[in-house]
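Re: folding output
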Amino acid sequence: MTPTFRKSVPWLTSIGLFVVWELGCLLLQVPEYILPRPSASIMAGWEFRDAIWMHAVQTLYTTVVGFGIAVVFGVLLGVFVGSSKAIYDALNPLLIGFNAVPKVAVVPVLVMWFGIGTVPAVLTAFLISFFPIVVNVATGLATLEPELRDVLRSLGAKRRDILFKVGFPRSLPFFFASLKVAITLAFVGSVMAETVASNAGVGYLMMSASSRFQMPLVFAGLLVIAAMGIIMYELFSVIERRSTQWAHRGQQGA
């Protein structure tokens, strides 16, 4: 498989999906209020482009802010949990229980505390994207080989040196993998909060459009969210490849 063809495969797959979707709606005569054709969604997106742009910027803002807070606290807590096996064993059940709580059930609580607006969306994006970062950073640090620790200690390395000079670089692949997962979850959290308790954002736009049975506009909002998620995911993929080339040398050689 040539590099050019490999790069074109995602585009060909996406185009093929939209073609099947378009033809399926036409052949089966699916009503537009149930499942609009991609062409109708694209036309609605162009017609309401100003409103979509305004709400998309708001969603991107809340997502990035919530994701940024999740990165800071996730790395700090991940280092704290992964630096000690006793702390890892003690806090891991609490983290699992926290992640098991449906975040949509937390949104009304956030509304009661902070009111309707940007803050609940930011906090929901933070809460839903926090867990993958903590777990991956803690796992990357906790799975450092005991033999390697013993060798470093025999050479005079202190615990802090092992953590910052060996543990952190070794956990970078885990960290960037968690970022790619967390950013997509952050979009889920912000849009979920916008549908419940906000007066701006793509989620609010979709709820308003669905109340007026404007399904092409609803699907246009879904396409915008998907596009933003793909762009942010690819951004972190590029950063990962540039920052952890040593971890991918074997795959590149293969």
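--- second protein (sequence, then structure) ---
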Amino acid sequence: MRRELGQLLILTALSLPSLPALALEGDASAPIEIAADQLEIDDRQGTAVYTGSVDMQQGSMNLLAARVEIQRGSNGEVSQVTATGSGERAYLEQKPAPDEEIVKGWGDTVIYHAGERRVELIGNAELHQAGDTFDGAYVEYFLDSRRVQARSGDSDDGDQRVRMTLTPRQQSQ
């Protein structure tokens, strides 16, 4: 039974169109590999829902969460990936370019908008980019421009103000 589930997960991953490249050129053509405890596919709705210690990889991208929902558009391409944590935050990492450090993000919910090449980190959000860190209730990262936007939460959320740590860049001599 476990072997059949593993084969089903692999077949499902291979049947999904590849996510557009988050960063490295080869990521878009790399196969999506997903491991989870459970899977539910609804072809009519264009969704695949993975639950239980989900580990999704494509090229340099790695996504870890308790639950991952993949939505496809009418053209069959992946339009959105929504990851949620349960007790722990969802985690996403990606290498922007061969000569750059890995970008890491955490949030209670992580949403990747494929068409816009944009990541939303929602709830207890944290982003690490090239030595800089951004924390807040909400952090948004634009993959192509490497632009970051962050905002605080409601005053009822306690200390969810936006916080940044900027690391000075080393000058090459």
